[in-house]
Automatic annotation (TrEMBL):
Gene3D superfamilies: NAD(P)-binding Rossmann-like Domain. Keywords: NADP. PANTHER family: DEHYDROGENASE/REDUCTASE (SDR FAMILY) MEMBER 4, DEHYDROGENASE_REDUCTASE SDR FAMILY MEMBER 4-RELATED. It comes from the Eukaryota. This is Dehydrogenase/reductase 4. InterPro entries: NAD(P)-bd_dom_sf, SDR_fam. Belongs to the short-chain dehydrogenases/reductases (SDR) family.
Length: 76
């Protein structure tokens, strides 16, 4: 599953719901760091990839699973 791709996130959630009849918890541990070095040398392409996976994908996963967690009483 590539959490940076919306269709992969949707498939992951659909599969989890079918196999487990619900979602109780989300562990979001996907991250990338394709650049090691001085921040002043990082390219915009690399920066976009870091934000896409480390921030945006996590936020979109939370947004997608919270309604399912609320149905089961696991979101406070």
């Amino acid at each position: 599953c590539h959490v940076g791709k919306a269709e992969d996130r949707e498939k992951l959630i659909t599969t989890a719901l079918k196999r487990h009849q619900g979602i109780d918890i989300l562990v979001s541990n996907a991250a990338v760091n394709p650049f090691f070095g001085n921040l002043m040398d990082v390219t915009e392409e690399v920066w976009d990839k870091v934000l896409s996976i480390n921030v945006t994908a996590t936020a979109m996963m939370i947004k997608a699973v919270v309604p399912e967690m609320e149905k089961r009483g696991y979101w406070y």
